Amino acid sequence: MKNFIEEVTWRGMLHDVMPGTEEHLMEQMRVAYVGIDPTADSLHIGHLVGVMLLKHFQLSGHKPLALVGGATGMIGDPSGKSNERNLLDEATLRHNQEAIKGQLARFLDFTSAEPNAAELVNNYDWMKEFSFLGFIRDVGKHITVNYMMAKDSVKKRLSGETSEGMSFTEFTYQLVQGYDFLHLYRAKNCTLQMGGSDQWGNITTGTELVRRIESGKAYALTCPLITKADGTKFGKSEGGNIWLDAERTSPYKFYQYWLNTSDVDAEKYIKIFTFLDKETIEKLIAEHNQAPHLRTLQKRLAEEITIMVHSKEDLENAIAASNAFFSPSMDELKKLDEKTFLEVFDGVPQAEISMDDLNAGLDMIAALAAKTNFLASNSDARRELKQNSISLNKEKVGEDKIITKEDLINNQFLLLQKGKKNYYVIKVK
Start and end of every Tyrosine--tRNA ligase SYY-like C-terminal domain (predicted)? Predict the structure, then answer.
C-alpha cells in the first residue's frame, strides 16, 4: 500500500484533510470519490486536478469512484459561484456522462480485474426515485438549518452584492451532495470524498450524515484551487475554457497553453499534472533553473500532458506546427491542414480575396494594399518592397512579383511578411 497522503502532499495537491485520514488509508484498500460536473460533454483542464487525485488514489492501491453529478447538475452548486447553473434535461446529462467516461478512461483503469478498478457512478440513478417528502423525512431532518447556514459557500451567496440571493434549490445542494456520500458509504463502502477546497463545506456535510444516520466514520480531503502566478484564471484562454476534447480545443492549442506557462506556474503544474516521480521533477527543476531561457519545464510539462490527454502523434503534430511558425522554409507549413494552419497564425491579420483575383494576375502592390489593406497605401507597399522588407511565403519578393495559384499554400493560403515579426495571411476563396 503506497502512502497516498505523502504523495499528494509533496505534489502540492493537499489543502485540507480530516484528522485520521492518512491512518485510515494505510490500513487497507479504501474507496474514495470525486464529483464531476456533467454540464458539458467534455472535461476541461479545471477538472484535471480531481481526476489526478483519483488516479494517484488508484496508483496507491485504492479504489476510485468518479461520480457524474446527473442529479446535482440539475440543481446547481453555489460553491464559489455567483449565479445558478443552467439546468439540464436527462438526455443531455446521459450524453455528457458517456463522453466524460471516455475521457476519464485515459486516466483511470475501469477494466482491471483487480479489486481497485475504477467505477463511474451517476447520482441521478439513486436520486430520481427519491420523493421530496421522502428526502426531507429521511435526510433533511438530520441536518439543521443553522448547520447549513454556517457553510462558507452559503454565507458568501447570502452576503454577496447580488440582489438575486440564493434559491431554495441551491440551498439544498449540500444536502443532496451529502446524501451522495451517505449512499456511496452504504452501497460501495466509500469512506472518503475528495474535491476542491471550495467543496469542504459540502463534503463535511456528507461526513456528518454518515455519522448521524449510520453512526459511521467518513473522511474529507480537498486540494487547493489552482491559480496562476499573474492572477489570471487557470484553465482559461482568450477563446474560453481549455477542453480535453480535441474538437473543442485542438491538440495544438492545448499544447501551446502549457508551453506558455510562466516559470513559477510550470514548477507547480509539473507536480500536479504529470505522473513524473519526485526525483525526475527535481532534476528537471534544477536543469530549468540553470538555463530558464530553454524552457525545459514548460516543454516537458506540455509534452507529458498532451500525450496523456491526446496521443504521442498529436504531440508530434503540435510540435511540428509550433516549429513551422519559426522555420525559415515553407516545408513544415505546407504539411499543416487548414485548421492547424489558421491556429498557428491565430491573431495574425487576415484578409480574403477571390480566386478570380489570382487568375487575373495579382501583383504585390495590390496584395499588400488595395486588395487587403495590410498596408495603408500603394505608396507604402512600393516603399516596403523597394526596401526589400517584404516576403511572400518566407521568400523575399520585389515589386515585379506576380502572385499565381502556384504560390498557394495547400491551395488556399498566402503568407505575407513585413520584416521578421509582422505576418499577414491571405485566404483565397
Answer: 343-426
User: Is-contact 191 200, C-beta < 8 A?
Assistant: no
Model confidence band, residue 82 (pLDDT cutoffs 50, 70, 90): very low
Helix (H) or strand (E) holding 317: helix 312-326
Which residues are annotated binding-site positions for ATP? 236
CB neighbours of 93 closer than 8 A, spacing ≥ 6?
38, 68, 70, 73, 74, 122, 124
Sign of torsion, CA 142 144 145 151?
negative
Report d(CA 167, CA 163) in Å as an integer.
12
- Looking at the chain, how many residues does it have? 429
8 Å CB contact between 425 and 325: no
DSSP class of residue 369 equals I
For residue 227, give the C-alpha cell: 491559480
Sheet holding 413-418, edge to edge: 350-353, 422-428, 413-418, 390-392, 395-396
Whether residue 76 has pLDDT greater than 70:
no
Q: What is the pLDDT of residues 342-368, one digit of tens each?
A: 888 888 899 999 898 888 888 999 999
CA-to-CA distance for 79 and 76, rounded, in angstroms? 9
Q: Annotated binding site: which residue ranges?
A: 33, 173, 177, 236
* DSSP bridge pairs for 196: 223
10 Å Cβ neighbour count for 159? Answer: 7
Residues 6+ apart with CB under 8 A from 237: 253, 257
Distance CA 223, CA 12 (A): 8
Rounded to whole angstroms, how far apart are CA atoms 136 and 427?
62
For the segment 391-399, the average pLDDT, to the nearest whole number, is: 92
Binding-site annotation, residues for L-tyrosine: 33, 173, 177
